[in-house]
């Protein structure tokens, strides 16, 4: 039984989502701190080029994107459920909206000059320049661009009003009942991001019902974790074998089959392709086999939704 290893850094909003998912599941995990900007040589030895944060490692299996990480953790421990029975579609759909629409608005608001001045007040100027170039590159080859700041400010009251409406239902303290689910954690990490400076914190605190709900979601914590060196995580992958492939039978709508050489990348941003042998194409998941001189043979897992696959 391999340990759960999360590759992340403290200020990443999607990493906070993953940490909360682990805490909600009351799972023990190992923590590998990665650089917030490229290059990330230890991470990309495992992923083959995927650079977004976070990444979950289980032995020689590497899971990209928190949408898929959530499903892997659900398989690891079924209860408490991230996808509540009878609300699976609604919870997943709201989570997708939060991870895309809400998150991109939060990014625009957080990256406004006044907010960034506070965030980087104690950071060397050289790193600020590196960070800015890195984030510009992150959006360079994808299908979306940043939301203009004026537009984000205009939209924000609408987004919060809809969130308040969902929370006002008499069906429990959370978005879909008495316990948090994948939708709560997907919305929460965006608002956690905004709470990072006094410039953007009022965008949450000015909505008391939302702020109270956020406090409850963040209160689940991060579970039990211990630090692990990145080099040791790569060595662990090299000394492990990928898990057995899923037994799901699924016909890919574009005709992709196991054994093909393909490239997979995110469709929206951070569109760095990972090239390898397609070994599984399911309804929700795509798995590539690749070999790295440091990590050995690994299986890199991607969600189907939000990713592109092309023949090589």
Topology:
Layout: E1 4-8, H1 13-24, E2 28-33, H2 41-47, E3 55-58, E4 61-64, H3 66-76, H4 88-110, H5 113-119, H6 125-138, H7 149-167, H8 182-194, H9 202-205, H10 208-218, E5 224-227, H11 230-238, E6 261-266, E7 274-281, E8 285-292, E9 296-303, E10 307-311
Parallel strand pairs: 1-2, 2-5, 4-9
Antiparallel strand pairs: 1-3, 3-4, 6-7, 6-10, 7-8, 8-9
Helix pairs in contact: 1-3, 1-8, 2-11, 4-7, 4-8
Q: What labels would you give this structure?
A:
10 strands; single chain; 2 domains; Glutaredoxin; alpha/beta; 312 residues
3D structure, described in words:
Residues 2-81 form the GST N-terminal domain. With 312 residues, the protein is an alpha/beta fold. The protein has 2 domains: 4-80 and 224-311, 3-Layer(aba) Sandwich (Glutaredoxin); 88-218, Glutathione S-transferase Yfyf (Class Pi), Chain A, domain 2 (Up-down Bundle), CATH 1.20.1050.10. Helices cover 42% and strands 19% of the residues. The chain contains 11 helices and 10 strands. The chain has helices at 13-24, 41-47, 66-76, 88-110, 113-119, 125-138, 149-167, 182-194, 202-205, 208-218, 230-238; strands at 4-8, 28-33, 55-58, 61-64, 224-227, 261-266, 274-281, 285-292, 296-303, 307-311. It has a 10-stranded mixed sheet, sandwiched between helices. Helix 4 packs parallel to helix 8 (182-194). The radius of gyration is 19 Å and the shape is globular. The mean pLDDT is 96.
């Amino acid at each position: 039984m391999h340990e759960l290893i999360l590759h992340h850094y403290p200020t990443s909003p999607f990493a906070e989502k993953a940490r909360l998912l682990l805490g909600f599941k009351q799972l023990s995990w190992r923590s590998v701190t990665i650089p917030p900007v490229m290059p990330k040589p230890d991470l990309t030895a495992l992923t083959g080029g995927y650079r977004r944060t976070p990444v979950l490692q289980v032995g020689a299996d590497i899971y990209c994107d928190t949408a898929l990480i959530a499903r892997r953790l659900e398989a690891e421990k079924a209860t408490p459920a991230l996808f509540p029975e009878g609300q699976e579609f609604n919870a997943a759909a709201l989570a997708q909206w939060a991870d895309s629409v809400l998150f991109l608005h939060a990014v625009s608001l957080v990256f406004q000059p006044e907010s960034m001045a506070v965030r980087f007040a104690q950071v060397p100027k050289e790193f600020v320049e590196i960070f800015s170039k890195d984030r510009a590159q992150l959006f360079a080859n994808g299908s979306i661009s940043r939301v203009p700041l004026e537009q984000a400010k205009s939209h924000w009251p609408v987004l919060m009003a809809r969130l308040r409406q969902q929370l006002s239902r008499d069906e429990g303290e959370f978005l879909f009942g008495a316990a948090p689910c994948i939708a709560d954690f997907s919305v929460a990490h965006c608002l956690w991001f905004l709470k990072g400076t006094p410039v953007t914190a009022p965008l949450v605190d000015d909505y008391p019902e939302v702020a109270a709900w956020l406090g409850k979601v963040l209160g689940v914590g991060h579970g039990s974790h211990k630090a692990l060196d990145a080099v040791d995580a790569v060595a662990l992958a090299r000394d492990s074998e990928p898990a057995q492939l899923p037994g799901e039978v699924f016909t890919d709508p574009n005709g992709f089959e196991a054994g093909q050489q393909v490239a997979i990348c995110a469709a929206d941003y951070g569109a760095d392709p990972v090239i390898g042998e397609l070994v599984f194409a399911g309804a929700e998941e795509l798995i590539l086999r690749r070999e790295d001189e440091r990590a050995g043979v690994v299986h890199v897992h991607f969600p189907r939704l939000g990713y592109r696959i092309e023949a090589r």
